[in-house]
Amino acid sequence: MATIKHLAIKGRSYAFPLRYLTYQYDEKTNQPILDENKHMVLRDEYLIDAIGVKSPSTFQEECENWNSQNHKNQKESEIKLHHYIISFDPKDKELGLTIEKVQAIGMEIANKFFAGCQVLICTHPDGHNKSGNMHVHIVVNSVRKYAIDKPDFIERESECIAGAKIRASKLSMNAMKAEIMEICKREKLNQVDLLTPPEEKTTEREYRKTQREQDKINIENAELEKDGLVPTKTEFQTEKDKIRKVIKRAIHQATDEAEFKKILNESGITVTESRGRWGYKTDDLKKTIRARQFGTNYEKEYILNKLGSIEAIRSTDNYYGKLKKKINVQNAISAADTMSFFVKNGLAGTDELQEKLSLAEKEYMQLQNKKDEIWEKLNYTNRMIHNTGSFLVNKRYYNAWKQTPDDQKEAYETKFAAELASYRKSSAVLKEDMEKYGLKVMPKLDDLKSEKNILMTELEKTEAAAAQSKQSLDELQILMDNYNKLIDQKSLHKEQLNDKHKHEISR
């Protein structure tokens, strides 16, 4: 079951790919693993080749020189590298797949789809969480080195010129997927249809984040349980997870598009539409997430078809008979619950209920504001941790550069450009933050991490309290709506009785 994924790399330096491919990195933190002497540890086994450069070790220097000649990738916002990962089914080992074969397949794909480019091809024998799936990394400089004749899988002639930026278009991705399927068929390996969009889709970033945050929750809950406490949160959910759950519920509850959107809106989710395609947005998200990023089961066409099929079922007289009976029963239950709440809480009417509702709204807003304050502190602490860590890790390169003789300084700076740039950037940001927040001494990394843990615990408690407050607020609002309906029904019934009485008198 070979799969392929693509990552567009912007912020990383060109030194990073070779380090990542040849040295051991922690899967959860994506940080290098260091030995007792604070040196990076080589991977136990890998195969690496290069195309368009002299050797893998010169990839960084040659890419940077070529980009500089063409005045490309000089900004941090530009895509510097395209990183493709082709993973194979662990069961393929039983079918004769070896690390050498995987590397050969990687070279075949790279030569076909990235001709004229500077490329690193590296195969690892094991996958995420020791899953055993062999996989090959193909890392491509986003600026083409040599001109080529335009193949069918490239949309624009301009991308084939030397010095032009290349793109990971849908056309090229589909062509690559088709090629991988053909190779698996040729090599008699396990394979799935890569060209059919998945019904449920989870991105690599979301998967990694879920794994990291769930590990934190598990560790914190274990500590709580040691102290005899019951954890309030056992499962981490991303914003996408929350959206997925609401959509699935809304599909079963809604009868048409308007009702579907209303249910989502009540849960804090806005449905947007652009060029006939849906997207989903919450207050906690900076950008709208396109429906296709969730999978085909979350796109407009699929959902409207589902709603349509439900409406067709509801068109039968038998269904409406059952539905009417169900609604009458539900109304009776709602009325009983509402009156029970008024009696238990000693409420005489809507004024007192409105007061409780106003207090609940105030409490919820206070918790939301507190949550925003914690997030602001957490963002600051994370930034300080990142820059302090970078400052400490790269300080030795800066000290060594200062001690280097003047005639060798330029060569040293070229060799360790990424490390020196990281040191200078983190140093400048730290200085700016320390002045802004009135700090005279650089905070210790351990203190910052402790502060982060405290803030994370506080944030989780506040989020749990806010969720409980929102639930209470919603329940009170439902009670208010039910009470108003009861009053309206009584008034209507009274009017009907009066009309009937008048009619009988007139007769």
Describe, in short, the structure shown:
This protein has three domains: 3-196, BirA Bifunctional Protein, domain 2; 206-315, no CATH class; 356-469.
Give a verbal description of the structure:
- The chain has 507 residues and is an alpha+beta fold.
- The chain folds into 3 domains: 3-196, BirA Bifunctional Protein, domain 2 (2-Layer Sandwich), CATH 3.30.930.30; 206-315, no CATH class; 356-469.
- Helices cover 57% and strands 9% of the residues.
- It contains 13 helices and 8 strands.
- The chain has helices at residues 16-22, 59-69, 99-113, 170-186, 204-226, 239-253, 257-266, 300-314, 317-344, 350-403, 406-415, 417-436, 445-506, and strands at residues 3-9, 47-51, 81-87, 119-124, 135-141, 269-274, 277-282, 289-290.
- The strands form 2 sheets. A 5-stranded antiparallel β-sheet has the order 1-3-5-4-2, sandwiched between helices. Strands 6-7-8 form a 3-stranded antiparallel β-sheet.
- Strand 6 (269-274) and strand 7 form a beta hairpin.
- The chain starts with a strand and ends with a helix.
The level 1 CATH classification of the largest domain is Alpha Beta
**Cα-to-Cα separation, first versus last residue:** 84 Å
Strand tally is: 8
Mean pLDDT: 81
Pick out its properties:
alpha+beta, globular, 3-stranded antiparallel sheet, 9% strand, 3 domains, BirA Bifunctional Protein, domain 2
